[in-house]
Design a protein that fits this description.
- Helices cover 27% and strands 21% of the residues.
- By secondary structure, it is α/β, with parallel strands linked by helices.
- The strands form 8 sheets. Strands 12-11-8-6-7-14-15-23 form an 8-stranded mixed sheet, with helices on both faces. The chain has a 7-stranded mixed sheet with strand order 5-4-17-16-18-19-20, sandwiched between helices.
- α19 runs parallel beside α20.
- The structure holds adenosine-5'-monophosphate-propyl ester.
- The site of adenosine-5'-monophosphate-propyl ester has 24 residues, from α12, β20, β24, β25 and β27.
């Protein structure tokens, strides 16, 4: 997993290796109502029935024109699904539900300030608002099918409205997580070639009304420096008519959406019938180099896959109240707040703010008041809620039937709290393993079919056939007790088609390692490399151990160590930087930064603060390092490579292993004493 010289550290190497073989069984009441109770689904989706089995998911959608080719492999490994078909994603999430669900809440939005009223948008209201905005985007912003538009929006209903308006026009949206900096947003604008940015003036978070519009000024400038001109910035206002940002509106460039919308009152825009393989959106994610990757997800395959998995794994029925607490700025929100649930005519709950604001009971009050019965969140949030108020869930009258955990491994102890205290012993839990690239779930138990096993994701989803390879490409058998690289043997409709503008990187990152023949047009020659280490138990369940590359999973969010390190290097005093993952009780992992200084400088608190500030500006607050250690030198191999593995072991106070072959072994002990033996201040 780490390469043979042991040069790089991987999260997998430092993952908690718990043993867990205890089963929990789905309650009979859950099974009685579940969408999928038939074992035969796995037979229908066996490899022998691939790719035709996925027709079952595609048939959940309404097609303008049915496809003729289920899977086109002619451009391997860029897979194209349901070719020949035409479809509109917005039509499938909105218009087609009007006859039966016109007056049903599509989205219920809960603002962070508790005194502000919830906003419930019925499917009819959503239809009206999406149409009016689509008219504005088309006529005022000049957007048309195939154009890219960058969204930098927080958790407000305007975000799904904007996404759906884009989808209606065939415009490719690229939503950048609201917590990312203006700089990050600007780089994504440039990479995607967007000439329109859609943002908001401000939003509530942890009791503050944050100024968000100010980031757009930097974003436009950064994009401009990279040669991408932004013609228009469309600014939603958190409180229409009232501007809460300090940033000036630039004349001729910045426009308030609420001032423009009245011009489109009552407008109706025909959904544009798109080829199934047309891109629906880009979602940027971190990789092993500094430059984020724009994962391109296509319309028909993606929508079919998220509809199918929302139905079978999330077990969403139209009458359910479903709450996924992720941010729509990440893939989880795209797939399992917006496109999956809405394609099934569900009621999808969105919350603006922090789960523990103003107190540890907030999440449970929302669940109680709205009658939420399906709940979906990440281990980080579960750990946070447990720490803030372990007994809080019991104080509120809500009952979930189904709960999800996603994004990181969940410790069995935390799982059991989720099960007993949050689920009150009556809800099933699915631990869903997947990635930005994969569009939807890869591994999970089927909630009414399989028993749950705390700490293990479960078997492959129907139609997903994982395999674990060792470094040399030999298969690691189930039950062998050995870990390896988890790969997927076959394509599936939710998978991304390419990295926007960089197909070479797409092939080299995800397929080169285990490709059997680079000329092949046969999918069997192209196993998908996830970048995760996993172990498969005797029962077929996969336990995901963590990343094998230079990606840190912080609170379920992916950060590239190279992105962090290049931010550190922007501080003029810094000569070298290494950022490693460090175990954290709440967030799972946090970045721990090591820097060495150019000879003319002395260590100072000011330099540490400058490093933190650089990371926040370059990436955003989520990337804030736990500590910044100023070290005399980095531990290095004789060929001059920084030994991150050693630094990570020091950060976690683990066994450092043999360092005698290093070029400068003496520095290791010096650093260890600095980090473990002293009172290096934690930066709050
Ligand atoms: O390492 C795996 C971890 O999160 C990575 C994907 O992160 P991202 O693209 O941001 O998507 C997060 C939401 C799907 C994976 O490579 N991961 C994801 N789900 C799990 C997980 N690790 C353990 N268990 C999971 N259920």
């Amino acid at each position: 997993m780490s390469d043979k010289e042991g040069i790089e550290v991987s999260e997998a190497e430092i993952a908690a290796h718990w043993q867990e073989e205890e089963y929990f069984y789905p309650p009979a009441e859950f099974i009685a109502q579940a969408n999928q109770t038939d074992q035969a689904v796995f037979d229908r989706f066996r490899l022998g029935n691939f790719p035709e089995c996925f027709k079952e998911y595609a048939d959940l959608l309404t097609w303008d024109k049915y496809w003729h080719t289920t899977l086109d492999t002619s451009n391997a490994p860029s897979w194209r699904w349901f070719v020949g078909g035409r479809i509109n994603a917005c039509y499938n999430c909105v218009d087609r539900h009007l006859p039966n669900h016109r007056n049903k809440a599509a989205i219920i939005w809960v603002p962070e300030p508790e005194e502000e009223a919830d906003v419930a948008l019925t499917y009819q209201e959503l239809y009206v608002r999406v149409n009016e905005l689509a008219a504005l985007l088309q006529d005022f912003a000049g957007l048309k099918a195939g154009d890219r538009v960058t969204l930098h929006l927080p958790m407000v209903p305007e975000l799904p409205i904007t996404m759906l308006a884009c989808a209606r026009l065939g415009v490719i949206h690229s939503e950048v997580f609201g917590g990312f900096s203006g700089k990050s947003c600007g780089e994504r604008i440039a990479d995607s070639g967007s000439r329109i940015l859609i943002t908001m003036d401000g939003y509530h978070r942890a009791g503050d009304l944050l100024d968000h519009k100010v980031k757009s000024d930097e974003a436009v400038q950064v994009a401009g420096n990279e040669g991408q001109v932004v013609d228009k910035v469309l600014v939603w206002r958190r409180y229409p008519g009232q501007y809460v940002s300090k940033s000036k509106m630039v004349k001729g460039r910045d426009f308030f959406v609420d001032e423009l919308l009245p011009n489109y009152l009552g407008a109706r825009i025909e959904p544009v019938s798109m080829p199934a393989e047309a891109p629906l959106f880009l979602m940027y994610t971190s990789g092993t180099t500094g430059k984020p990757k724009g994962c391109q997800h296509n319309t028909g395959g993606y929508l079919a896959y998220v509809a199918g998995t929302s139905k079978y794994v999330q077990d969403i029925h139209p009458e359910d109240v479903y709450w996924c607490m992720a941010d729509i700025g990440w893939i989880t929100g795209h797939s399992y707040i917006v496109y999956g649930p809405l394609s099934l005519a569900a009621t999808s709950v969105m919350y603006e703010g922090v789960p523990t604001y103003p107190d540890a009971g907030r999440t449970w009050r929302i669940a109680e008041r709205l009658g939420v019965n399906i709940f979906h969140t990440a281990p980080t949030t579960i750990r946070m809620l447990r720490k803030a108020g372990p007994d809080e869930p019991g104080k509120y009258q809500f009952q979930f039937k189904h709960m999800t955990t996603v994004g990181e491994p969940i410790e069995p102890e935390v799982w059991r709290w989720y099960y007993h205290s949050v689920g009150k012993g009556k809800a099933v839990i699915v631990d869903t393993y997947w990635q930005t690239e994969t569009g939807g779930f890869l591994c999970s138990t089927m909630p009414a079919i399989h028993p749950m096993k705390p700490g293990s994701a479960g078997p492959g989803m129907p139609g997903i056939h994982p395999i674990i390879y060792d470094e040399d490409g030999s298969v690691i058998e189930r039950g062998s007790g050995k870990a390896g690289n988890i790969c997927i043997q076959n394509p599936w409709p939710g998978g991304f088609e390419t990295i926007w503008g960089d197909r070479k990187r797409y092939v080299s990152t995800y397929y080169e390692k285990y490709c059997r023949n680079p000329e092949s047009k046969d999918w069997r020659d192209w196993p998908y490399f996830t970048g995760d280490a996993a172990i498969q138990a005797d029962d077929g369940y996969y336990r995901i151990l963590g990343r094998v590359d230079d990606v840190i999973n912080v609170a379920g969010h992916r950060l590239g160590t190279k992105e962090l390190e290049s931010a550190c290097l922007l501080v003029p005093e810094v000569a070298e930087a290494a950022v490693v993952p460090m175990a954290d009780d709440i967030k799972g992992r946090v970045p721990d930064a090591y820097i060495s200084l150019k000879p003319e400088y002395k260590p100072s608190k000011k330099i540490q603060e400058a490093v933190v500030a650089a990371i926040e500006t370059e990436i955003g607050k989520i990337a804030r390092p736990k500590r910044v250690h100023i070290v005399p030198d980095m531990p290095k191999t004789r060929s001059g490579k920084i030994m991150r593995r050693v630094l990570a072991a020091i950060s976690d106070a683990r066994d450092i292993g043999d360092v005698t072959t290093l070029a400068n072994p003496e520095v290791v002990e010096q650093i260890r004493q600095m980090v473990q033996g002293d009172n290096t201040e934690t930066l709050k």
